[in-house]
Design goal:
The protein is α+β, with helices and mostly antiparallel strands. The protein has a single domain, classed as Yope Regulator, Chain: A (2-Layer Sandwich). It is built from 5 helices and 9 strands; from the N terminus they run βββααββββαββαα. Strands 1, 2, 3, 4, 5, 6, 7, 8 and 9 form a 9-stranded mixed β-sheet that branches. The longest helix is centred in the C-terminal third of the chain and has 26 residues.
């Protein structure tokens, strides 16, 4: 089971629509399974989810959704294969319900957070009040992906979401400025109480 800063992925039932079972290969020859894995990296993500016994849903061919329970929030994780561009897009979102009066300050916070990130970035989806961490892997020119690579992307995203979740709460609900929220998020306590 993947653990990243105390975050565990939820376990439970698996829903796989329109695909054979990757463990048994039932309904799919070994050659077909290999071709799908090379041409569509979601087969790698699905195998990773099965291997770790994570709860996931694959209701369409080009996307896998995974439920994640963190210390601070529940996250909706999604891997989407954009075959035309040869891009594996990753997103990790949490509900924020941003009031109109806090929207500008929240956007400023997103900009400040993104200045600190080396991998991925946060977006604010205003239409449904969602904060989203996004990252894409370009797999052009025959490049493939691995379960370890997908786990690393997922782990880093969850670390970023957990680190900055309080900053979003400070801005949205406590009325703090983006600068005050960033100062609080960057404060690291040494030792244990």
């Amino acid at each position: 089971m993947l653990q990243s800063s105390g975050i565990f992925l939820a376990c439970g039932s698996r829903i796989v629509v329109g695909h054979a079972n990757p463990r048994t290969g039932a309904g799919m020859s070994l050659i077909e399974n290999f071709v799908e894995s090379r041409d569509n990296p979601l087969a790698v993500v699905e195998s990773m989810a099965l291997r770790n016994d994570w709860s996931f849903e694959r209701s369409v061919e080009d996307e896998i959704a995974i439920a994640v329970t963190g210390k601070r929030a529940n996250y909706q994780v999604s891997f989407t294969w954009i075959g035309v561009m040869k891009v594996l897009h990753f997103s990790c979102s949490f509900e924020a319900k941003i009031p109109e009066s806090r929207l500008l300050e929240t956007r400023q916070l997103v900009a400040r957070i993104n200045e600190q990130l080396w991998i991925g970035h946060f977006d604010l989806w205003r239409r449904d009040g969602t904060v989203v961490f996004r990252h894409s892997l370009l797999l052009d020119g025959g490049v493939s992906t691995s379960g370890e690579q997908c786990e690393a992307v997922l782990g880093r995203a969850l670390d970023a979401c957990e680190q900055y979740y309080p900053a979003f709460q400070f801005v949205i609900w406590a009325g703090k400025s983006a600068r005050e929220a960033m100062d609080a998020a960057m404060f690291v306590t040494a030792g244990h109480a």
